[in-house]
Amino acid sequence: MPELPEAETIRRQLEAEVTGKTVRRLELLHPRAWRAHTSPKELADLVEGRRIVRVGRRGKAPYLLLNSKRPSVLIFRLGMTGLVRVAKVTRRAGASAPAPFRAAGAEAEPSALRAVLTLTGGRELRFYDQRLFGELVAFPTHDVDNTPEFAHYGPEPFSGEFTLDYLKDHLSRRSAKLVDVLMNQQIVAGIGKIYSDEACFRAGVRPGRRAWSVTGPMRERLWRAIREVLSVGIEARGSSAKDETFRDVYGIPGRFQDRMQVYQRTGQPCRVCGTPIKRARIASGRGMHWCPKCQK
DNA sequence: AGTTGGACCTGACTGC
DNA sequence: TGCAGTCAGGTCCAAC
Questions:
Q1: Active-site residue, A3 included
Q2: Helices in chain A by DSSP H: which ranges?
Q3: Residue ranges of domains in chain A, CATH in brackets
Q4: For chain A, which terminal residue's Cβ has fewer other Cβ atoms within 10 angstroms, N or C?
Q5: Longest dimension (CA), chain A
Q6: Which SS3 state, helix, strand or coil, does residue A56 take?
Q7: Nucleotides of C under 7 A from a protein CB
Q8: In angstroms, how far is B16 C1' from A130 CA?
Q9: Which nucleotide is nearest to A190 (CA to C1')?
Q10: Residue A149 among the catalytic residues
Q11: Mean pLDDT, to the nearest integer, of A80-94?
């Protein structure tokens, strides 16, 4: 599932690959590839003929800052299975459907192709999304943090705003489970199932605890663990575990799954103490994983 | 307002 | 072998 490390991997690669290029054309290949309140024409107007001046990321979403005479931003909401690929333009001008893309890594499912941005310089960006939870979103501004997409977001985990006191404050005021608080994008942006479970393991705290019950040295361990585990995830170029379709823009899987301690390891021995990893459901029906001995 | 649970979606997997 | 049922989770939304 694309979370902050996966989005940051995409951001870094796109920055190197497409900065300075101009979007010639946007093709939308599925009615759910863009947000419903924007028409395809509005979206195309915000993207086509504009130069990519910067590549950014907020939480789990990479975005392109575009400009010609007026600024705009194109946000990739990746949802569950969203992928962004960079490819050479291989089809002839005027052809309506892109040829299946084969990259150095695993091949993306051609039927999951939702949108194509043709760029200058013979490159194109392809947006794939198997389960259709992702979409493209654009706004006529560079003030990204104040767009409807991100206005309600909490601080970036690596920003100076995400202090220990900030985390303590939000934990103490919540009765929800810790894992739900960590995944709440309004509290801190960029954490999903994988990295919340892994941060809790690293901090030695059970993800099912009520947030207010996380007190004392646990809070500082958790605060450090969040950033450590996200840093490791970024270094590993994201996570491509068994059920995960994530690939980088070249089609290459990430390596964080090799470092996972609890996520998707139900019943397997804890790498620290050998106790079988447990799994339980949280409010939204999703799973959380923890070691019953290492985590209190 | 905060918390909880369902809906959305489809490929992979499970069990009969 | 085939096919219905289940699982997976990011985000939104309704109900309490």
A1: yes
A2: 4-18, 40-47, 164-172, 178-182, 193-203, 217-235
A3: 4-146 (3.20.190.10), 164-290 (1.10.8.50)
A4: C
A5: 64
A6: strand
A7: 8-12
A8: 29
A9: C10
A10: no
A11: 78
